[in-house]
Amino acid sequence: MNKTSLQINDILTNIHFKQAELVAGFNGAQNPIKWVHVLEVTNAQKLLKGQELILTTGVSFKQNSEIFLQFVQGLIETNCSGLCIEYGDYIQSIPTEILALANLHHFPIIVFHEEVRFVEITQDLHTLIINHQYSKMTQLENYSQLLNKEILSTQNAEQLLKILYNFLQIQIIFEVEGQVAIFYPNMTKKQRELLLEKKKCVATSSQFTIYPIYLFEHNYGEITLHSENREITEFEMLILDRTVTALAQVLLRNLYVEEKKGMEDAKWLEEWLEGGHSEEEVKQFILSEWPNFKQKESAVLVISLPRNEKNKQLDSTYFKLYCHATFDKKGFYPFAIQKKYSLILILLNRQDGIPMKERLRECIQKLETSDLLMGQEFAVGKFVTDLTKIHESYQTALDTLYISRNLDSPSCFYDELYVFHLIYKMQKHTNLEEMIRDYLQPLVDFEEKHGGELLETLEVYLQSNGSKQETAKRLFIVRQTLYHRLRRIESLIGKDFMNGQNRLVLEFMLLARKFTRKIK
What we know:
The protein is 51% helix and 14% strand. The chain is of the alpha+beta class. This is CdaR family transcriptional regulator.
């Protein structure tokens, strides 16, 4: 019996088929059989699921060649394994056009030259099929145990490919993004290149069965089976599924080991964040990790991890691996540094095309929706091209975290909060509140005594570029009320407040007042 499934040529040696003859569809002798049905109706396609062996006496079409032809055509369309016909009162021969159709589609037709008992045939073949399925499940269980035993001792994915090949005897290609493909059994360089080209070609793509390997919700790699002579069976797909699961475990374990080793580099990375390494030292360190590195833009991302029950249960190594996979997939070389309540990622861009900021935003959105954390905050520092300026990106990321946290800002990017960074620096080195009072105090004093919402009116009026209609609409007030407020503003800070530098300074001071009031 065939290794992976019960086939037409297996049943031809069965005791019930001693007087049977294969008269057409000889090239379909390896068709797999899932079940056996007795059919005496002509329109039975809706009753079939595919890969059934059909038994019939022909009572439904007798000597009507046209109905007989439609019957066979329907079986072929539903992907039946073959047709067994009993010669007798209803059929004594098979028309040549039906034999030609069967040969064309490799559809086996078997004839019984004498009367047979269909009930005994179906009972016997069903027993064979069930026993065969049980045998396959036993083989699958034994194969799984072999894999489990192997992954306890091996760190080499190729060893699992060897086990898969020994079982299936089919060419295997193992691919991980950014790494050279592994072929098992190995092939010459020219053969490997030709096979990869065939895999990309639509005309030959049916010869390849591709099974993805997922780690951290990402397509980390894939296993490809190449078979030119036959289709991959369901049982072989189960074998492949077990192998991919085992491979994922080995790959994940290897990543954990690498991440643990990476902790030894933490001190060096912290010194890099502080600007403590020369450009040559940084390049040598990066090239030791990624030999193909080419210098582009870089940035630092700070992920704040508040102390709460969910975050306490977080496996920090797993989270770093998840981040690594997320950013690697989007074209970054990531370096991770674990702090007490934060994770810092140095992100080196390696991809052209889609802007770096757009890909960064997608990665952050994925982390936000991953359900791994609770209450996390993100901050991206300024983009730098000089690797010795990473400390500047880190410092601006910390400033961005501080600013966005106090402003409840929806943005976590340094360049989108630039004016607040300017205000923040001024606050550190000047008496910013005194400057604010110089420009806005008359409005503040008036509001405290009389109300009137003059500061909000001024802010919206400036944002609306002096459009009274838009300002009234945004404030939900009638124009007369707006005119009254604008006259009051003019009386307090001057009629020329919309002119040139005056307007620019007022806009800046309104933002500065908002910022300083938030952080008090």
